[in-house]
């Protein structure tokens, strides 16, 4: 760490102003989060978010979306709300898309039990 350029050197943090006459005082103030007055605030480090890699294996030459949807939700309880809505639409069930998931699940289970 370099010596202080001017004495006293002022440090600020949350509206509190402290002065430092010696390098050791400046180091202690920096460790406490103080910044030299007039200097830019330190920028937070950039964190790169990486998406997880997903391996998708598809058998055959063409991808069959309907088969893939059936494999994703093996039982009605495992399905997401969107999958339940698609299931209900495919089987002509009456429901409102803004209904809670558990209500749509009940409608689908009733249909499956009757079917």
Q: What does the model show?
A:
This protein is α+β, with helices and mostly antiparallel strands and 115 residues long. It folds into 2 domains: 1-39, no CATH class; 71-114. The chain is built from 4 helices and 3 strands; from the N terminus they run E-E-H-E-H-H-H. Strand 1 (9-13) and strand 2 (16-20) form a beta hairpin. Helix 3 (81-90) packs parallel to helix 4. It is rod-shaped and about 85 Å long.
Helix and strand arrangement:
Layout: E1 9-13, E2 16-20, H1 23-31, E3 35-36, H2 65-72, H3 81-90, H4 101-114
Antiparallel strand pairs: 1-2, 1-3
Distance between the termini: 78 Å
Enumerate how many helices there are, as a single number: 4
Strand content: 5-15%
* Largest beta sheet: strand ordering: 2-1-3
Mean pLDDT rating: 78
Shape: rod-shaped
Q: What is the radius of gyration computed over CA atoms, rounded to a whole number of angstroms? A: 31 Å
Kindly summarize this structure in a few lines.
The chain contains 4 helices and 3 strands. With 115 residues, it is α+β, with helices and mostly antiparallel strands. A 3-stranded antiparallel β-sheet has the order 2-1-3, covered by helices on one side.
